[in-house]
Amino acid sequence: MTTTSRAGARPTGPTVGPVVDVHAHFSPPTTQAAREAAWRAMRAEDFLAPAPHAWSPETALAAMRAGGIAMQLLSTVPSRHEALVAANTYGAGVVAAHPDRFGLLAALPTDVPAAALDEVRRAREVLDADGFAVSTTRNGVSLGDPRLDPVWERLDALGATVFVHPDTTIASRLGLATPLLEVTFETARVVTQMLYARVFSRFPGITFVLAHCGGALPGLSGRLALLGTAPWVANPGGVTAAELRSQMRGLFLDTAASGTDASLAAALQMVPVEHLVYGGDSGVPCTDDDSIAANLAALRGSTVLHGDDVPAVLTRALTLFPRLRERIGAVAAG
Prior knowledge:
Elements: E1 20-25, H1 32-44, H2 57-67, E2 71-75, H3 81-97, E3 102-107, H4 113-125, E4 131-135, E5 137-138, E6 141-142, H5 149-158, E7 161-165, H6 182-196, H7 199-202, E8 207-210, H8 217-227, H9 241-249, E9 252-254, H10 261-267, E10 276-277, H11 289-300, H12 309-315, H13 317-320, H14 324-328
Parallel strand pairs: 1-2, 2-3, 3-4, 4-7, 7-8, 8-9, 9-10
Antiparallel strand pairs: 5-6
């Protein structure tokens, strides 16, 4: 078993069990012209990707083999409804072709609650999805919007696991690419709105997993508990400081681009170590094989985790998504 220590020891052996990545993006097939147009649009928004981005199951599988990843949970949340439905259908087909290597987190169009409910039903009855993926804000509608209560009620009844990814369509600021900073604050803003709406306490049957170790939220969690119920803060529901802390503590956080001790230490001030789960953030232009490997190495070499914590983080998705155990098959022994 891999062993680490909070006192500074580094890993001394192989990880026990299959590494499962809850944060893996995918893209349905598209044209070279469309990829180049997307690339030019990114560069106009200070995202200086060196070349157009493309994804395929074959390249993903090759990277997984090279990186020692047994399984990925695929997700993407397009802004257009037709594209979202098509992406979910395509993702389900990828999983059907490689059931021991991929799972699907079906995207929900949370800007239109009725359509989101329809997609929940389709994801369960037709696509056989493993869980769900949502964007913090979609076409101007945030996850704290009270109109989403029927969607949360349905997911709560299903005991669903919901992966929350920040909205990546927000504009860059100060010449800094959106994926560098803005997405982290987007997560903190919207999740804070959900805290005041008591989304997490009113729907306890849902397991929420936040991307990127919760973005800026862990670093702000103490401030929220200290100042969040002050008289000058709008708090029509009368949420208490204890409620804020309890809701935050119940969240799960993935380690995508956040496997360093600085990120993990902040996370562990907000959630128990049992609520950390491995995420790689593969399949997007802001992540490459080198950064994924560096992030994973930082996680394996953490000095803020106990010896058994790292293997547990790397395999925790099998607890959050127990059906994966049935499919992972021979990969688990590899």
